[in-house]
Each structure stands twice: as structure tokens, then as C-alpha cells.
Fold this sequence. Notes:
- The protein is mostly beta strands.
- The protein has no helices and 24 strands.
- The protein has strands at residues 10-16, 24-28, 34-41, 46-54, 61-63, 66-76, 83-94, 97-99, 103-109, 119-120, 124-134, 141-150, 161-168, 172-178, 182-184, 188-198, 202-215, 222-235, 243-249, 259-262, 266-278, 283-293, 308-313, 316-318.
- Mean pLDDT is 82; it is low at 1-5 and 299-345.
Amino acid sequence: MSFFGFGQSAEVEIYLDGQDARKTAEIKTEDGKKERHYLYFDGETVSGKVHVNLKKAGTKMEHQGIKIEFIGQIELYYDRGNHHEFSSLVKELARPGEMTQNTSFNFEFQQVEKPYESYTGANVRLRYFLRVTIVKRLSDFVKEQDIVVHTLSQYPEMNTSIKMEVGIEDCLHIEFEYNKSKYHLKDVIVGKIYFLLVRIKIKHMEIQIIKRESTGTGPNTFNENETIAKYEIMDGAPVRGESIPIRLFLSGYELTPTMRDINKKFSVRYYLNLVLVDEEERRYFKQQEITIFRKAEKQRKAGATSGHQTHRSMMQHTSTGIAHEPQEENQSKVEPDATENDEAE
């Protein structure tokens, strides 16, 4: 049996330099559970030791080489056979030969580029991991260890507020404003809603945070929408001239940074969706994209300037009492000079 490579086997452990003091971060698995892995950032060196421990003392293990790889890859769940690697580094730990005792190997990947944030979604996963391979005659022995990567952003120099006037002609006119268009993960959305004209009986209003995950390209693009948060703004009928404040804390929700066209495979975008329901259960809503970013913990806020962008468009109205999917918004306009594409980034 030893002749066929079955006589000896080994256990492999990967120890990362400084792991006892390194922070960990939580990330979802495919089945929705949560795991914690060591946290790294773009440009950080990934180094450590690989311990190969023989299971049977006094017995040699033949191998055709031992290597360690640092891999960043994107896995689309509908295309599981193909893993799209955007980063791949290899270090040879040992040349073909025999092992007669437990051995440790040092490795170092200097200032590794990690351009994207680790992500697990409904239809796609982006992961970074170390993979040790002991090449053997019949079947290789493989050990993997994941790490989590966070991408940090500075405060944007321009962070304009979002101001909109929306409504249905001669029935409803609302002006609403959000204080910014770009928010960090622990930020607070502050805004207000002002009723200019109310001729329909509104009984309920809420604001939603919608996450839209897009995979594929062109006609093969698939969108998966998830309502991350629902925040009730009002319960009861508003009157003309009434102003309602909004204060929504993002830290209580599981958000990721906005991710646009990651390696031309997927995107993750966030939208604020204002929903009104009248007494006949008809729904009106207006959606606005916001940008979410992760800021460095010790980064001070640069002087952000505030401006206003005004949008005029009609809320979508469905007489069946069920709102259409968010991506089908803005099918018609209230006024001839309405613009649909002037969305704040």
C-alpha cells in the first residue's frame, strides 16, 4: 500500500504571522451561517508557517512537491464549474521527495493586492483563501484557509444631498430630502418629508433599504432584490404643510459597501425606497440609489460639501394594491420637463 502512496498521510496546519493579535471579521457562508476569519486589507503582506504533521511516526511520506497559493476568486452559483480567479500567487514549499518527520515551512506573499471586498450573496461569492497542496501520485492532499478582506474608503469630497419633488398631478405632491447621497456603514440617514398637496387618503408611509445584487452581463443579467430594512415614518393621514423627520441608523443592519461591476461579474447596489399606502391599499413609491462605503476607523472626516440635486418624477401607482418590483420604477412623468436619469451617485 505504501507503494501506491496510501501508506502515510499527514495533517496540515496554516499559522498566520501575528494571528493572535490580528482582528477577525464575520462573513456569511453559502448556507446562511456565519464564520469568523482573520481580517486583512489591500496591500498587506500575508505570511506565516505551514506545519505538516505525519500521522504515523517512523513511516516516510513520498510526495511530488508541496506548494501554497494565495487565491482571490469569484464563484457564481449558477456556474459552479467555473471559478473566476482574479488573484493567484504561488510559492513552492518543498521539491519532490520524502518526508520522515514533522516539518514546518515559512511562506510570505508580500504586499498582496486585494482589490475587492470579501462578499457572500444570494447568487455569488467572492473569497480569498490560502491553499496548501501536497502533490501525491494518485490524489493530492489539499488544505484551505479563508481570510476576510475589507476595502476602506475615505470620506468623499463631494457628498451632495438628495432633494426630490414627486407626486401625482392634482392628487399628491411631496418634497423629500436626504442629507447625503453617500453613507458609511455606521452612518445615520437624516432627512425630512414635506407634504405640499394631499388629496388622497394616505394611511401609512415607510422607508426601505433595498439591496440589489446583479450577476451576469447584458441580456443575461439577473437581479436579486432584498429588503434589508423597513422603517415606519408615519401611521395616519398627513395634512398639507406637514413635515415629517427621518432618522435611520445604518449600524443595526447587515450591509456591505456598494460594489460596482466587480471584475465584470457582479454588482451590489443600495436604494432608499419611499413607500406610501392609501386607504384602498394602493401603493406609491419612489426609489433613489445611495452609495455605501466602509471608512477607516481612525480616519477623520474631510470637509464635505453639500449641494442639492432636484428630481421631478411621478411615483409609481398600482391599482391592484401590490407594488411592482423596484427596478420597474419611473414609467411615467408628472411634468413635461421631468428628468429620469439625473440620479445622485
